[in-house]
# Entry
Amino acid sequence: MKKLYLFFFAMLFGAVACTDLKEEVLNEQDGEEILADSTNAANLLAPAYTFLRDLQSRGAGWLVGETCTDEVVFPTRGANWNSADYRTIFTHDYTASNSYIKNTWNSYLIGFSRCNVALYYLNKMPQTSKIKQYIYEVRFVRTLSMYLMNDLFGQMPYREWTDISFTETPQYLTRAQIVAKVIGELQEIIPLMAEKGNVAYGRVTKAAAQMLLAKVYLNNQVYTGSAPEFSDGTGKWAECISLCDTIISSGKYSLADDFWKLYLSDNAAYSDATETILPIIYDSSLGIGGIPWVNMTLDYNQAFGNYKTSNLWNGCCTTPTFYATWDQADPRFSDTRLESSTGFNLGFLVGQQYNASGDSLFTKDGGRPLKFTPEFSNDNSLEEQGIRVVKYAPDPTTAYPGASQNDFQYYRLTDAYLMRCEAKFRNGDVAGALTDINTVRAKRGVAVYAESELTLEKIYNERGYEFYWDNSRRNDMVRFNTYCAARYQKTTVTPTYKILLPVPLTAHDGDSNITQNPGYDSF
# Structure
């Protein structure tokens, strides 16, 4: 089911694998012969799609977006994971020199630039219906990179894809300008994009663009707020509701009956058949591996199947703050389907750990019982401290234990229900919000709420139950005004200016016209 990347690789290798070695002289000045052949279009499209994989990066976007929240932390463990950059993102003591914030800024702008290059050359090709669809898809990815720059940094240097005069200074867009461009671009391409079923699994569809626009509207009160609070702007609840209505009523997607099948290592077919709107797809056999989910969280001594001790790094965990929000009877909290082959459950790993034979495990450091505890120290944790999370399930028989091949769940239909729920509640339609959240909860097999029980906090928690470790938490925390609050191992209230991350020092080194976000030390 890895159709998209198999397609790209076929196109790439097909373009170079040739048994006829007769020399062909090309116009090397502008490549007109290549551009005239639309079969080369996939080669131009591939880098934009490749950028999507960076959204799940352990060295950039995913790490920054999750470790500044209560969902994920990489505590120092003696000499291991001893990085101030990890620790300060979690405690919100980040500065413009943080390497992971730098990587994230670079990643999102590289994605934007890749899309500009693709658009420049795709627009030079014969404008068939296929080429036009490619262009709309690249425009979506480009718009997504702008949305992410706005969400994290509130500004960006900007060039139109037609602007190839790189000696000229780019524009520098403010948060309001980025939001306006994102909305305008999405409104323009949505009517033109293909729906699910008309393009291969993994390709961007109309619903993906509608999801992104719905997210812009859901966060509009934040994005149009006045500094430094960023939460007193204009809500666009009706617009968000309308887009979610369209996605849900399209009949193209259905809520999954089995939550955990969405996160198994072979999740493509089930994801495609049910609720996944935008997957980011992987295939380790092609060298396209995802984040090493289990490697970076499991203890060294939790080896299983083809995952050896050397493959496991005893790193990240979750916090007691997030753990305390859970009803542990919720099926999304824990699932035992892989215990017989791995020794551990999916979901949250707490307490004594066992191997696949049922034997108790011990720490590598000192031989203590391997009992994962809610408590940990961000500055210096014991080996067994911190509750571990395994959401993207491993394949114990994989030949590639260094990388996952689970397709990443970037947008799902559940998010359309919960965005609509939140927008309705904030817009005064409590009964409508109740129907949406209870539709999700009933599908997940947990007790539904009475109307008198529903609060914004319950909606916020429901988003945590569905999308934990999917890089949604920071955006949610800002919107629900929990991002700045003190919490476990972050003992002070974060100044509101830190809702936006600092512009990296390296960005200013490369372009002295870039200005630092308010509140941070100037360059």
In short: The chain is about 40% helix and 5% strand. Residues 294-390 form one domain.
